[in-house]
């Protein structure tokens, strides 16, 4: 079996991760704008997100969009720099941590719909973001 160079792994995993991160950011933006998708978020507490949930989703949509750009850049894609270069590893590992928490929370949520959608998406994001960071790290 032929091994892909780490730069290829970083490019592929960052591309896949960015697609899922963009979907997540879009979902959060839709919630922020009032989409009645609350059963698939926030523990499925309500179909129509509250003002506080909508504000939280607005912030989350920006955070996930920024992380998508950082992941793409870390994977070697030519995209706009949104954080200083020296901050990229910290942003990547922070994203990995958030995604790990997301896997746990989306697995334990009382909302069946949220578990079905976001637990697997969170897992894909955790794997692709971790793979991107590990593959993109300079060799010592």
Structure description:
The protein is mainly α and 140 residues long. It has one domain. Helices cover 69% and strands 0% of the residues. It is built from 4 helices and no strands. The chain has helices at 6-32, 51-74, 88-108, 112-136. Helix 1 packs antiparallel against helix 2, helix 1 (6-32) packs antiparallel against helix 4 (112-136) and helix 3 runs antiparallel to helix 4. The radius of gyration is 16 Å and the shape is elongated. The chain starts with 5 loop residues before the first helix and ends with a helix. The model has no long low-confidence stretch (mean pLDDT 93).
Mean pLDDT: 93
Taking all Cα atoms into account, the compactness measure Rg is 16 Å
What is the ordering of alpha helices and beta strands?
HHHH
> What is the SS-derived class?
mainly alpha
How many strands in all? 0
Biggest β-sheet strands, sense, barrel: none
- Helix amount: 55-70%
Number of helices: 4
Q: Can you give keywords for this protein?
A:
mainly alpha, 4 helices, 140 residues
How are the secondary structure elements laid out?
Blueprint: H1 6-32, H2 51-74, H3 88-108, H4 112-136
Helix pairs in contact: 1-2, 1-4, 2-3, 3-4
């Amino acid at each position: 079996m032929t091994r892909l160079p780490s730069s290829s792994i970083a490019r592929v995993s960052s591309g896949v991760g960015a697609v899922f991160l963009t979907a997540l950011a879009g979902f959060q933006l839709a919630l922020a704008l009032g989409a009645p998708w609350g059963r698939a978020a926030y523990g499925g507490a309500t179909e129509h997100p509250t003002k506080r949930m909508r504000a939280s989703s607005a912030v989350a949509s920006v955070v996930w969009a920024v992380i998508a750009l950082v992941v793409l850049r870390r994977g070697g894609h030519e995209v706009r720099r949104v954080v200083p270069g020296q901050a990229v590893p910290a942003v990547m590992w922070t994203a990995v941590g958030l995604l790990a928490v997301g896997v746990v929370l989306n697995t334990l949520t009382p909302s069946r719909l949220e578990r079905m959608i976001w637990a697997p998406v969170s897992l894909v994001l955790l794997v692709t973001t971790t793979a991107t960071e590990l593959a993109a790290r300079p060799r010592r």
